[in-house]
Amino acid sequence: MKKIIVITSGKGGVGKTTTTINLGAAMNYFGKDVLIIDGNLTTPNIGIHLNSPEVPVNLNHVLSGKADAFEAVYEHESGIKIMPSSLSIRELTKIKIEKIKNYKEDFKKISDYIIVDSSAGLGNEALSLIGIADELIIVTNPEMPALTDALKTIKIAEQMKKSILGVIVTRVRKNDFEMTPEIVKEMLEIPILGMIPEDLSVQKALKLKDAVVHTHPKCNASRAYKEIAARLLNIEYDSNKDKERLFRRILRRIKIKKD
Ligand SMILES: Nc1ncnc2c1ncn2[C@@H]1O[C@H](COP(=O)(O)OP(=O)(O)OP(=O)(O)O)[C@@H](O)[C@H]1O
Ligand SMILES: [Mg+2]
């Protein structure tokens, strides 16, 4: 069944865009037809993350009735489809984000899995995006302010009668100061879909302008994103095999050096 999954958080800067892109890339890795939409119209980032900062037709044009939804779709070399938003302030004025609800069926004609990145906060933009979700994923960090905002988002989503798949906790360092998975679960009362470790490869990927799942497929963050995607898609995936393959490759390199 086709579905729109909205990635939201309440707090800003917790890893929504990174998660949107990499969950999309991981689903694509498992052979799924994915469309990533940059619903963060005020501060759009998807285009910057995926090396397409400016495109001639974008979501802003769709929402202002100047273009059809399929005209704002671009194909990444990986096969993921992307609908960016405009970086231009001029193209932001007069946009009514609430209109996005009128395009749900059009989005579903483009791909099977539509993953929507959203803006921080719980203003009109974030709420309009929650409004179009068939399913929601909450992104948070293992810190109290992020968890508090996540909880607020969950409560509002529940009032809107939205189905929440669970929470993804990102930038996990496993130190003594951060909130443990037990506290996260107790506080948010929704399933933890996965924990994404703090991983320098994520920032390297940003510099390379691609998803870390593409640039560093075997790093800890990529394997964690693939594990989550596999679980959501009901697909068998053994992330240890990816790790073993990485180790084998390193060993081979060392051997070559020795020779
Ligand atoms: N697992 C990770 N390891 C290291 N850095 C990460 C990780 N996940 C995200 N980051 C970094 O954290 C920063 C914020 O991430 P991102 O832009 O995805 O957050 P966001 O929630 O979309 O922010 P905003 O609310 O501003 O849209 C980025 O610099 C990103 O590279
Ligand atoms: Mg973002």
The strand count comes to 8
Topology order in helix (H) and strand (E) letters: EHEHHEEHEHEHEHEHHHH
How would you name the oligomeric state of the polypeptide chains in this document?
single chain
List segments where confidence is low: pLDDT < 50 over at least 5 consecutive residues.
252-259
Helix content: 40-55%
Instruction: Please report the distance between the alpha carbons of the first and last residues.
Output: 54 Å
Major sheet: 8 strands, mixed
Rg from Cα: 18 Å
**Structural class of the helices, strands and pairings?**
alpha/beta
Q: What's the shape?
A: globular
Strand content: 15-25%
- Average pLDDT score: 92
Summarize the topology:
Blueprint: E1 3-8, H1 16-29, E2 34-38, H2 46-49, H3 59-63, E3 74-75, E4 81-83, H4 104-110, E5 113-117, H5 124-131, E6 135-140, H6 144-159, E7 164-172, H7 181-188, E8 192-197, H8 200-208, H9 212-215, H10 220-233, H11 239-258
Parallel strand pairs: 1-5, 1-6, 2-4, 2-5, 6-7, 7-8
Antiparallel strand pairs: 3-4
Helix pairs in contact: 1-10
Bound molecules: adenosine-5'-triphosphate and magnesium ion.
